[in-house]
Amino acid sequence: MSTLTYKHKKTFKLESGKRIKALEIAYETYGTLNAEQNNVIWVCHALTANSTVLDWWKGLFGENDLFNPKDHFIVCANILGSCYGTTGPLSTHTITNNPYYLSFPTITIRDMVEAHKILADHLGVKNIKVLIGGSLGGQQALEWSIMSPNKIENLVLIATNAFHSPWGIAFNESQRLAISTDRTFYANTQTGGLKGLKTARSIALLSYRTYEAYALTQLESDHLKTENFRAASYQNYQGEKLCKRFNAYSYWYLTKAMDSHNVARDRKSLKNALQQVKANTLTIGIENDVLFPIEEQKLIAENIPGANFKTLKSDYGHDGFLIETDQLTQIIGNFLKDSINKKIIPLIKTA
Question: Any coiled-coil ranges, and where (predicted)?
Answer without folding.
Answer: none
